[in-house]
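**User:**
Everyone, produce one record:

**Assistant:**
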Amino acid sequence: MTDVTSFTPDTSSAAAVDGAKKAAAEKTQRAKEAVTKAVQSARETASEVAQQTRTFAAEKAKVGAAWTRDKAQVAHTVAEDHPIGVALGAFAIGLGVGFLIARNLD
């Protein structure tokens, strides 16, 4: 007698292929979602860093302007009070820097 089961198609391998396709599709979908989340997180981080940088730069510019203005006022007052001293000091600094540059070029 002939065995009937040998003539029927193997449904277990077809089910395994379908299961593998579904698993691959799920993995692909999860990977796409992970990439989307990563890109969104990177954008948020970049925008936060840019905002912090803008804030920091604006604060430092204000501090720098105030410091420069104060120092300029003090220097102006000193120059008015002691013009010869400032001229001699600038001359001495010029000589020193010129000497160092000349020595470096030899």
